[in-house]
Amino acid sequence: xxxxxxxxxxxxxxxxxxxxxxxxxxxxxxxxxxxxxxxxxxxxxxxxxxxxxxxxxxxxxxxxxxxxxxxxxxxxxxxxxxxxxxxxxxxxxxxxxxxxxxxxxxxxxxxxxxxxxxxxxxxxxxxxxxxxxxxxxxxxxxxxxx
Amino acid sequence: xxxxxxxxxxxxxxxxxxxxxxxxxxxxxxxxxxxxxxxxxxxxxxxxxxxxxxxxxxxxxxxxxxxxxxxxxxxxxxxxxxxxxxxxxxxxxxxxxxxxxxxxxxxxxxxxxxxxxxxxxxxxxxxxxxxxxxxxxxxxxxxxxx
Amino acid sequence: xxxxxxxxxxxxxxxxxxxxxxxxxxxxxxxxxxxxxxxxxxxxxxxxxxxxxxxxxxxxxxxxxxxxxxxxxxxxxxxxxxxxxxxxxxxxxxxxxxxxxxxxxxxxxxxxxxxxxxxxxxxxxxxxxxxxxxxxxxxxxxxxxx
Amino acid sequence: xxxxxxxxxxxxxxxxxxxxxxxxxxxxxxxxxxxxxxxxxxxxxxxxxxxxxxxxxxxxxxxxxxxxxxxxxxxxxxxxxxxxxxxxxxxxxxxxxxxxxxxxxxxxxxxxxxxxxxxxxxxxxxxxxxxxxxxxxxxxxxxxxx
Amino acid sequence: xxxxxxxxxxxxxxxxxxxxxxxxxxxxxxxxxxxxxxxxxxxxxxxxxxxxxxxxxxxxxxxxxxxxxxxxxxxxxxxxxxxxxxxxxxxxxxxxxxxxxxxxxxxxxxxxxxxxxxxxxxxxxxxxxxxxxxxxxxxxxxxxxx
Amino acid sequence: xxxxxxxxxxxxxxxxxxxxxxxxxxxxxxxxxxxxxxxxxxxxxxxxxxxxxxxxxxxxxxxxxxxxxxxxxxxxxxxxxxxxxxxxxxxxxxxxxxxxxxxxxxxxxxxxxxxxxxxxxxxxxxxxxxxxxxxxxxxxxxxxxx
Amino acid sequence: xxxxxxxxxxxxxxxxxxxxxxxxxxxxxxxxxxxxxxxxxxxxxxxxxxxxxxxxxxxxxxxxxxxxxxxxxxxxxxxxxxxxxxxxxxxxxxxxxxxxxxxxxxxxxxxxxxxxxxxxxxxxxxxxxxxxxxxxxxxxxxxxxx
Amino acid sequence: xxxxxxxxxxxxxxxxxxxxxxxxxxxxxxxxxxxxxxxxxxxxxxxxxxxxxxxxxxxxxxxxxxxxxxxxxxxxxxxxxxxxxxxxxxxxxxxxxxxxxxxxxxxxxxxxxxxxxxxxxxxxxxxxxxxxxxxxxxxxxxxxxx
Lengths: 146, 146, 146, 146, 146, 146, 146, 146
Hints:
Eight copies of one chain form a homooctamer. The termini of chain A are close together. Chain A has six helices and five strands. Helices cover about 50% and strands about 15% of the residues of chain A. In chain A, helix 1 runs parallel beside helix 6 and helix 2 packs across helix 3. In chain A, strands 2-1-3-4-5 form a five-stranded parallel sheet, sandwiched between helices. Chain A has a domain of about 100 residues: Rossmann fold (3-Layer(aba) Sandwich), CATH 3.40.50.450. Chains A, B, C, D, E, F, G, H: It holds the Pfam family Nuc_deoxyri_tr3. Chains A, B, C, D, E, F, G, H: This is YtoQ family protein. Chains A, B, C, D, E, F, G, H: InterPro entries: YtoQ_family_protein.
């Protein structure tokens, strides 16, 4: 029983590397996918493909096409989505990806620090489980595959 | 042809009253529904129904049950969802409600100031339309019913 | 905004009458539907329609056709399902109806005494909300329609 | 043609081992998945991952997150669900898992002793087939793959 | 609680009139819809709309467009489908309409004489209930609305 | 039994008026909806709501938001879609609306002159029926409601 | 690109062997599945698993459980369904399986002699294609994989 | 992570070969499928399988059966659809295939020259991304798999 897990959310820390290394150390048969983690490339992908856009807003609109496309294709191939809310930024993308997981019928684990519990209470209720650390998420992955 | 419109998002300003009054002045046959706008009542509803909870986190978890229940029932009765992102707070609920609209197959209009264009670019791409003001959203409602 | 609510579960007490009277006293625009509450008629409906069956098992199989048919038609017309687990019997029907509500995309409130919390913990997690008394459920109905 | 079969229900007897051994002896190309069978671990998993909870009710709520998550992921990978109702306990989880199978569009076989025929009559009608013994379920698996 | 019921199947007898009259006598709030009952008009509708076709096969193909269109529109508006298998003809249309009811998520009652029990055993298993007479079907309608 | 019919396709002729007048003369209980028929308004609606766009391409992108929004809301309220392909223009919108009807599970009638039979053969196969004139489509509407 | 094809319909002739041999001779990468072809075993499977039933009707009901179970599991694994209507019997099962294919979103080819064109005209319209011989169906399989 | 991509649209140029060669040169793990590219064979396939038809219209109707069948089977196996609108012909098939991709829940990239931007503006809005050249589409494929 192999699992494919989509790692949504914060791209400014190394949590994806941490989760991959720890899962590998546990020999769990899990394959990870996720968004473009190079922030600049993610922001610029619209202009890289379509050329210079007339303003920052249109540059963003162009980039969102390809970022949503990548997310949709990879998330649809996943058995589970794990979404991490970090400490900084608005992270509406993370909220959107977590909700998209629910919409696609994908089970969902949220990782968020206790600080965020109030702001995330309704989304947390829609997730299958909410944890506070990467290690707790890994315990959940382990439990599924025992 | 009557429409039911769910007004998601910010509850700390009077944008819902504004939209209702202007739509009434235009004689558009639109019925509006939306979340609990009394913030304290929304935060306390879990304890009001279930009694004192052991901590702030559990109080929030209890409230989220009834807020999500209300949203789900009312949004499923809507033909269209309009979600407004305000200037303050994380507003992950708004992002979640906007995504839920997409998940339920409900057409979606986002209202957000230009300041938010970067943070909302992917969600904006999933909406049917993104506008910057309540008046623009009303023009869209008018166009649908012409 | 009218709501139709399906009242699933225990048929040996008067909780449906209680909920209807209290909701009427509150002037909430809610219409209630539910299963056959005459237990004998529910058990005998298969033989009443199809005639004498060869054994108790086949009598039950015959009755289940018409009870499931009634439940499916009425539950599909509902905006919300409230399922009450009483103190006695196996009540697998109640669990099944609660699960069917989830399957049909109907929001779900469970009512169960604290005694049942362990046995119902997974089903409770799938419901939108779990309460312990009819009065708490009525508060939730009121909150939805405020 | 390989099949994946989810074995839902009673975790206090050895019926899963029996079915696996007999299917292996028949050389049927079937892979089995199912819930956590270590009852204590299943009850404690919430606290093992999230830490001490404020009461038994909250401990159960925490555990249900991870048990439902495991069930959802594994059941969605199955071609067939077999649910066994044992002699003891309320077994509302079994009823819920059987109903979830129907909701996910998974064919369903119930195993229950004749004693349970009345209490399970409506759920039995929703299953593809109801049998009384593990050996009868194995005959059905054999028939599918002939 | 009003119901709309689609009456599928045999068009060469008066069973639809019988069911409508008896339901009216019982004051049940049921509205009936169904296929074109004028057999010639049903067979000729393709040529009546599209003009002369090159052969009997193409005449049939043309008619099937409009008969399927009518069935799909009206069946989708129904809460329940009742399909009667008569004594004569192949009645593959009846089998198809009964299966379409299942596909559209519409509850289904079959009416067939005991003679047909073997040929219809698998389809009967997919219906919510199978009865032998119009009067039995009316008892079922009555039971739903009690 | 009232029907709502969405009239997709060509907006440069008076076929919608013709169909409405003839259906009214027949006293058929049909309510019609459809796209914005004022071509300039349809092309300019993006700039009317969002303000001046940086180029013709972005003006079109802006307009498409509101035209698709209108179509989606109104088509989802329809029981049937009729799509007319005229003699001029690419009419890819008409093909898209016809396909969207199929996607939303809405029955579909195509109206196209014989000249278009080759180019439309695959789409025609997906429609419930293809006719050549408005009068033929009206005969089909009449047949559904007989 | 491998295909799995479910061969529904007549079990009293050798058409399945013919299609398998010819497809093998063409080296097409197609795997075939289908119903139990031993008619007696298909009729008796209910009693073989569940034991002696009280009458022929109940024997049939028991068998239908396991035949429908087998069909549902195997058909859901198929990319395409081919259904052959033979010259004899009512073949309502074939009509039901063909309709189930449509319900499951599986493309469908019907094989029927010209004699059956009138009785099958509506079902034929729902199929992707209708042919008269096994050889024509094989040409269609070849065309898909060119 | 392998991807299957359906290449819809124009069959009179060599864009499919170009995309396949360039993707192979990049070592991207992508498998391509698509429609019959031999135009005559596509037009004649109905008569090749079913024999001579009574007129050009019926010849087209016969061909559309098998072309739609091929498209449906192969598109359902795809993770992504790329649809290219060329310079000539009505290309309603391309619009239909692009819309079918949306209907099947398949992510969609449009390729069209700037000349077509006005005629395709609404369909473009439904696609995940619209580009002008094959090279831009390849950049998008690369981005998904980085």
